[in-house]
# Entry
Amino acid sequence: MKNIRNSNDFNRVVERIHQLSQTSNRQWGKMRVEEMLPHCADQIRLAMGSKQAHEQPTLINASIAKYIGLWLPRIPLKNLRAPVDMNARFFGTAAADIETEKAGLIQLLQQVHAMQAGTVLQPHPMYGKLSLQQWGRFMYVHIDHHLRQFSC
# Structure
């Protein structure tokens, strides 16, 4: 399964991020490309503990999400509500210009990719405790979902 911790998958995601531009058209949803990038970065900030989580995991969310995120090749649904911690209208990070956002997301991905095995990250705000490998999988699935949203 693809994972940000895998060098080939990491490199391909970075290439796809570089393909994004102001003219990238979304295929679904409401976010503009420059809003999607900090949305994805916020997931990593939550994992690394540099962003406070406001939502709490529930047993149902943890069970369903771990199954979907760890075993399915991609997020099967579109137009889902963004969690409040990753939604700029609530606690998410406001968007800057697209190049700044691309560089920031790539920098965060590099940090996760370079982490030593066994590094403990923060619990996911909805899905609970995840290993570094599980976080890497969720990050891949989430970012892949949004890159596909913008045809990259």
The two ends are 19 Å apart (CA to CA).
